[in-house]
Amino acid sequence: MARYSDIDLDFKAHPVSGDIVTLTDMEALKRSVRNLVLTKRYDRPFRPELDAGVHQYLFELATPVTAIKIKNKIEETIRRDEPRVELLDVVVTSVPAKNSFTVSIVFRPVNVRNTATVTLNLERTR
């Protein structure tokens, strides 16, 4: 039996049952961490205060100082809002040529030895 499960927010239908596909265990946690980092204020209907705060830095220059600010926000958000994982490392690398950031988040599910990595590219959309 799955230890953790979440619905897939892509709302894909199961090929046999037609129900919404669920993500389990490590995939559920990876998606949760990814969604937390990408969440902006008022994105979540019943938790409008939830805000990772990284989007505000995407309109600044891609410097090492901005990368440190993004790293701190990500660490704070995951530690506060995802109790199912133990955060091991967050690496934020600035890509000045594209004015974007590459983020790698390494974590381990609570009471499990396996680690997982979520890699994101953060860039402004406008």
Alpha carbon gyration radius: 16 Å
Strand order of the largest sheet: 3-4-5
Query: Any idea what the shape is?
Result: globular
**Mean pLDDT over all positions:** 85
Low-confidence segments, given as residue ranges, are none
The helix content, as a percent range, equals 25-40%
Query: What is the helix tally?
Result: 2
Overall tally of structural domains: 1
Which fold does the CATH topology refer to?
Nuclear Transport Factor 2, Chain: A
Content of β-strand: 25-35%
Order of helices and strands: EEHHEEE
CATH class: Alpha Beta
Keywords, please?
two-stranded antiparallel ribbon; 126 residues; 25% helix; Nuclear Transport Factor 2, Chain: A; 2 helices; single chain; alpha+beta; three-stranded antiparallel β-sheet; 27% strand
Map the helices and strands.
Blueprint: E1 5-7, E2 22-24, H1 25-38, H2 64-81, E3 85-95, E4 100-109, E5 116-122
Antiparallel strand pairs: 1-2, 3-4, 4-5
Structural description of this entry:
- This protein has 126 residues and is of the alpha+beta class.
- 17% of the residues are buried.
- The model has no long low-confidence stretch (mean pLDDT 85).
- It has two helices and five strands; from the N terminus they run E-E-H-H-E-E-E.
- The chain is 25% helix and 27% strand.
- The protein has a single domain (5-122), classed as Nuclear Transport Factor 2, Chain: A (Roll), CATH 3.10.450.40.
- The longest helix is centred in the middle third of the chain and has 18 residues, at 64-81.
- The protein has helices at residues 25-38, 64-81; strands at 5-7, 22-24, 85-95, 100-109, 116-122.
- The chain has a three-stranded antiparallel beta sheet, covered by helices on one side. Strands 1-2 form a two-stranded antiparallel ribbon.
